[in-house]
Amino acid sequence: MTTQTKFKITVPATSANIGPGFDVLGMAFSLYLTLDCERLPAGSALQMSYEGEGAKDVPLIAEKNLITKTALYVLSTYGITSLPPLKIHVTNPIPLGRGLGSSGSAVVAGILLANAAGELNMSKDRMLDYCLMVERHPDNVAPALFGGFVASFLRELEPEELEPSSIPRSEPTRNGAAQPPTPTVDIGHYIQLGWNQDIKAVAIIPDFEVATEDARAVLPDMYERADVIYNLQRIAVLTTALSRSPVNADLIHKAMSDKVHQPYRKHLIPGMSEMLEQITPKTVPGVVGICLSGAGPTILVLATENFDQIAASVQEIFARQPNGGIKSMYKVLDVVNDGAQTVYH
């Protein structure tokens, strides 16, 4: 069989922590990280170029770029010490550090790159194991890999399954140079949930970043039982309500309330408390629900109509924050059923 010389990898952006679904619920959007790849003659050097979000800051060295670093990790577990000669052009419209799964999408892209470049023939379930060795949040990588509205959980791993620390991470971690381990099987589990296609996502993206590690640092180590029950009740309702037709906006809005992460992160996103209180189905027509996207600072509004006015309502709250306000942009996105793909041509 002749090796195909060109292939294209596409990976959707995602949102995680949907409403009460902290570290559980995620969804894939119609906004795609793409890699256009071409095999080069033997002996050629890797050529990598990049356009889009973060173009000035993203490293293009294989050992430092998250996409290629992840690919190198996967290949190393198959006894392959380097990427084959490739020309890779990355196009990234996903804002970095904004809660739209940019790091998760990069990790998934790296897994698919290794699979294609090394002709590994991995199943998507096996790819998920590798994703979760790098990005420890299945609610981002599962929808990026499989598409749709997804619930997921991560099997607790023994310390020896996580070491040594030369596994690349999408967040800061320990240093180390030992041989990376091959992941065990079935690290993560997921299920694709129903989704009413009349519901779109309006992502209002402010002009500042919130690092995931900073957003996690403000969370408590222990929770009150009442707060846990509050979220469990709502997540059970929300996951079904979002699939039903006609859309029950009032029920979904109430079921998207959260007491596990948003109350602790509100001081990281100026105006967030006001947005959660004021942007409702009763005050802004078309609104179905509102929450923080991922660890923020993007605000995610689920809606069936009136998308521009909804975005303007959130942007106005950002704009009137102290010290000159906060600039923002917005995107109206579909929740897409197709996850990451590799197309050969």
From TrEMBL:
All residue ranges annotated as the GHMP kinase C-terminal domain in the record: 250-317
EC number assigned by the record: 2.7.1.39
A GO biological-process term: threonine biosynthetic process
Family annotation (PROSITE patterns): GHMP_KINASES_ATP
Region (Disordered): 161-182
Keywords, sorted A to Z: Amino-acid biosynthesis, ATP-binding, Kinase, Nucleotide-binding, Threonine biosynthesis, Transferase
PANTHER family: HOMOSERINE KINASE, HOMOSERINE/4-DIPHOSPHOCYTIDYL-2-C-METHYL-D-ERYTHRITOL KINASE
Protein family (similarity comment): Belongs to the GHMP kinase family. Homoserine kinase subfamily.
Protein name: Homoserine kinase
Protein's organism: Entomortierella parvispora
